[in-house]
Design goal:
The protein has 232 residues and is mainly alpha-helical. The chain contains 5 helices and 2 strands.
């Protein structure tokens, strides 16, 4: 397999953590991972409140448990997805099949675009519920609720950036695969105006012309036998 297929070196190469952490898609994954922790951590820790008159906790987003549940669920699943694809980035150079690398990059495009959409929905949902919430005037949990909304918004761009970078890797890999399929040795092409190169023989070549040297036939012809009269 060719080196550099779909944005990675030759298969079986040594793992280089310095190169991995410098790659843009790896940086975006780590940032998305941190953002997901902020979102679900903020909601879990301070997104549920209770009042002296109520014994049961309620969601700070307009007392809508679905809003808090959506934020926590998306945050936790995004956290796990980031870990999964970070592990895939580590293992990716060891994949020897170009087809398997193509599948991995295509899945990266689809998953990243899907999570960008989920974070967009989450941002709109949480922001709307916070806007109409009467409990938004309370000091307790306000910073956490706003942080979850803000980092949901930021996550849209980090996941969309991962999808864009994965699509660029796919284009580079597709172009290199197309080049390797279209390339042909010119000497093997019968449509070329010149004849293919022929390997010279291993015999002696006194003239240095690359061909086979042949002795003149007369040099090895035997002398005629018997007496021949000479004319005087």
């Amino acid at each position: 397999m060719e080196g550099g297929a779909y944005g990675a070196g030759k298969a079986g190469g040594a793992f280089d953590p310095y190169t991995l952490v410098r790659q843009p898609h790896t940086i975006l994954r780590v940032v998305s991972w941190v953002f997901s922790i902020v979102v679900f951590g903020s909601i879990v820790n301070e997104g549920y409140l209770n009042s002296p008159s109520e014994s049961k906790e309620f969601c700070i987003y307009n007392r809508n448990p679905n809003a808090c549940g959506y934020g926590v669920t998306v945050g936790v699943l995004a956290f796990l997805t980031c870990l999964l694809y970070l592990a895939l980035d580590v293992y990716f150079p060891q994949i020897s099949s170009v087809k398997d690398r193509k599948k991995a990059v295509l899945s990266d495009i689809g998953v990243s675009a899907f999570w960008a959409f989920l974070w967009f929905v989450g941002f709109c949902y949480l922001a709307n519920q916070w806007q109409v919430s009467k409990d938004s005037l309370l000091n307790e949990g306000t910073d956490a609720a706003r942080a979850a909304i803000a980092f949901s918004f930021f996550s849209i761009f980090t996941w969309a950036g991962q999808a864009v970078l994965a699509f660029q890797r796919y284009q580079i890999g597709a172009d290199s695969a197309l080049f390797s399929q279209d390339y042909m040795d010119p000497s093997q092409d019968s449509s070329m105006p010149y004849a293919p190169y022929v390997e010279p023989s291993t015999g002696p070549d006194p003239a240095g012309m690359g061909g086979t040297y042949q002795q003149p036939a007369s040099a090895f012809e035997p002398e005629p036998q018997g007496y021949q009269s000479q004319g005087y």
